Fold MarR family transcriptional regulator.
Amino acid sequence: MMRQTRTIEPSSPSLQMEDVSVSFETTLLVKNSCLCLHVQRAARALARRFDLALRPIGLTNNQFSLLMALNRPKPPTMAPVSALLALDRTTLTAALKLLERRGLVTVTPDPADRRSRLLALTPAGRTVLASAVPIWKSTHEALEASLPDGNAGRLRQDLAALA
């Protein structure tokens, strides 16, 4: 039987990988201890919970967060919104296009710098956001009440430390 090798993608052209395996015990270790996996699973569960709650008004949790990020006295540019939501510019642009088509946001050139875009809620966007806030509040209160130790502040601190 011939042993196969293949080159791993570009990070290290000289690195060769032989047929190897990872023990099932390692799989269980990762499943039980990986913070990234646990945070991803929790984030997906939270996202589903808020998506379900916001569905009657036609928003997803991501759209709610984006509308809330635009709820400012002066329209922001893409950079601070992108940073706040931890989104790359391409993902933010795609999300904005959907909300712009629905008439909830406007994206206009910044008069001070024509290369930048100003992002603003439309009156319809403000109306939808206002109807979403009570839904968010009640869902959020129920979620915080369901935490085992009831210490949502500590959870926020811990998650912020990871970010």
